[in-house]
Amino acid sequence: MGEPRLIEISPVTRVEGHGKVTIHLNSENEVDEARLHIVEFRGFERFIRGRLMWEVPVIVQRLCGICPVSHHLAAAKAMDMIAGVDQLTPTAEKMRRLMHYGQVMQSHVLHFFHLAAPDLLFGFGAPAEKRNIFEVIKEQPELGKRAVLMRKYGQEIIEATAGKKIHGTGAVPGGINRNLPIERRDHFLSSIDEMLAWAQDAVKLARDYTLEHEDLVAEFGSFPSNYMSLVREEDGALDLYHGNLRALSSTGNVIFDQLPYPQYHERLIEDVRSWSYMKFPFIKELGPEVGWYRVGPLARMNTASFIDTPIADAAHKELKAVTDGHPNNSTLANHWARMIEVVHCVEKIRELLNDPDLQGNDLVMTGERRGEGIGVIEAPRGNLIHHYQVDENDQVTYCNLIVSTTHNNEGMNRAVKDVAVKHLSGHDQITEGMLNHVEVAIRAYDPCLSCATHALGQMPLQVELFNAEGELVDSKAQSV
Amino acid sequence: MLLIGYGNPGRGDDGLGPAFSESMAARDLTSWTIDTDYQLVAEHAFDVSGHELVVFADAEIGSAEPFSFREIKPGAPEVLGSHSLVPETVLSLCETLYGVAPTAFVLGISGVEYGEVKEGLSDQAAANLTKAQAFFLDWAGRLSTA
C-alpha cells in the first residue's frame, strides 16, 4: 500500500493564461479529489473604479491580449445603457457586429488549429514533443497556412473596425467612431469565399473527428449540466452580439428564457471557494449543487433554437441530430461547435460586407443618462457580463465582471475530476501522456485564465509529482 | 525590410517595443515597413515571409546595457503558444510554412519597471530608448548605403 500523493500540473499548457491542476491520490492510488486552481489574482474590478466612463471600453481591453474585443464590446454595451441609448444606429450596430464576428472567427481558428489540433491529430497520449502545431504543419502544411491566413483575416477585420488589431477604440458609448470605407470592404470581399470554403473544411474536420471517435467523445470529461447563453429576442436564434438570456437543463428543460440581461443578477449568484481566486456562479433558484451551468460554443449550440445563416444552420442540425435534439453533454463536442461558429461568423461577415449600412455616417446616439449599465455579449469562450455603476462625475464606482471562464469554472473542475478518475486512478506510475488527458479536458473549454484573473508575467512550465513527504518524485518541462 | 515593435504599453517599460517602432514610423524610413503590436502571434510568420530582413524590437529585462542587438536564427518551436511567441519561433514557423527565413535581428531595449498596470516609460527606460533609436538609425543608414 503506497502513501497518499499529490500531483500538480502547473501551469496547464496550450490554454490562454496560467492555471494549476492538483490531483490528490489516496493510498490506493485512486483519485480522491481533482481541482483546477486559478492562481493569479485579477484586480480589474477594483482598478477600474474612479476611471471615467468613456475610458472604460478602451481600458478593459487590457484584461486580455487574446479577446480584447469581447471586453471592449461588452463594456461599450454597458456604457450605451448609461448613455441612455437603447438602440444604436444601423451603422454602429453593424460595425460592432462585424468587429465581433472577426474576433470570434480568429479566436476559434487559433484555438482549433494551434491548441487543440495536436491532441486530435496525434492522440492525447502521444509523446509531448509530437503534440505541437509544428508537427501538425509537417503532416498537413496546407492546414497550417490556412490557420494563419484565417486568423489574419479576422485580425484585419478587427483592425478595420476598431482602429487597431489590439486595444482598439472603435466602440464608444452610444455608438462607434468609424465606418468601413469601400476599399476596405472590397479588400475583405475579395477573399471571403475562400474563407468560407476553408471554414466549411474545418467544420468537416471537427465533425469527422467527433463522429469517428464517438465512444471517446461520449465518455471523455462528459457529464450532464445546465447551459446558458444569449439568444435572439424574437425567435431564440444563435446571436453572438445581442439578445436575452436562456438557460436549459441537461435534458433541454427551460430554466429561464428571454431574460433581459440587465436582470442577470436576479437569477445568477457567484459563489466563492477558498482554493481559487475564481468565483463559481450558479442559478439562484437551483442552488450551488445543481445550479451550476456551462457556457461557450457547445452551450450555444444547445441553447439556440437555430442559426440564421444557412451553412452553419445545416451543421447545427447535424450536431443536434447526434443527441436527438437534446443538449449535447460531451465536452469534446465543443470543438465541432466551435467550428460551426467559425462558419457562422464568416457567413455573417459576408452578409455585413454586402450591407451598405457599413458605409453610413450616422455613428453615435445620445439619450437620457443613467447611473448603471450592464453589457452582455457571447465572447468566443462563452457568455461575458460587464456591470458598472457611475457617479454624477461619470466616474466608475462599481464594477463586476463575470467572464466566460468563470461561468465554466465548475464544469472545468468536474471535467478534470472525471478524466483523472478514468485515466489516472489505480496506476503506480503517472505518465506525461496520462497528465495530458487532464489538459485535453480543460483545453476543450478554451479557458482564458489570464482573463478570468489577470496574469503578471509568465510562469515556468513544469509538471511535478510529489510524494506525501513533499519530495519531488517526477517532473517534466512543457511549453506555453 | 520589416521592423516589428511589440509589448504592452499598459505595463510600464514593457511598452518599449511599441514606443520604439512608433518613433521610427514617425520618421521617413522609406525602405522599412513598420509594424507595432501587443505581442508576437502566428500570423507574424506570414508578415516576415515577405521580407529579406526583419528587426524585432522588444523590452529587455535584467540587462546592464541600455540595449542589445543580436542576430537570431529560426528555433524554439517548442515555445509556440498563442500569445507568447518569441522571435525565433516566428522565424521557425515562417520557415516551416513558407520555406523561407529572413535575416533577423532582435533589438532588446532595457527597462526597469514592469510590475504595475500603468502607461508611460520610466526615466531610465526613456533614456535607453533614446540610445537605441540613435543606434538603429545609424545602423539602418549604413545598411542602406552598403
Automatic annotation (TrEMBL), chain A:
Single GO MF annotation: hydrogen dehydrogenase activity
Pfam families: NiFeSe_Hases
Residues reported in the UniProt entry to bind Ni(2+): C64, C67, C448
Cofactor(s) the record lists: Ni(2+); Fe cation
EC number of the protein: 1.12.1.2
Binding site for Fe cation: C67, C451
Coiled-coil zones: none
List of residues binding Mg(2+): E45, L401, H454
Entry-linked InterPro entries: Ni-dep_hyd_lsu (IPR001501), Ni-dep_hyd_lsu_Ni_BS (IPR018194), NiFe-Hase_large (IPR029014)
Key words of the record: Iron, Magnesium, Metal-binding, Nickel, Oxidoreductase
Family: Belongs to the [NiFe]/[NiFeSe] hydrogenase large subunit family.
Protein's name in the database: Coenzyme F420-reducing hydrogenase, alpha subunit
UniProtKB/TrEMBL annotation, chain B:
Keyword Transport: no
Sample GO molecular function, one term: enzyme activator activity
Swiss-Prot/TrEMBL GO biological process terms: protein processing
UniProt keyword terms in alphabetical order: Hydrolase, Protease
Keyword presence, Hydrolase: yes
Protein known as: Hydrogenase maturation protease
Originating organism: Roseibium alexandrii (strain DSM 17067 / NCIMB 14079 / DFL-11) (Labrenzia alexandrii)
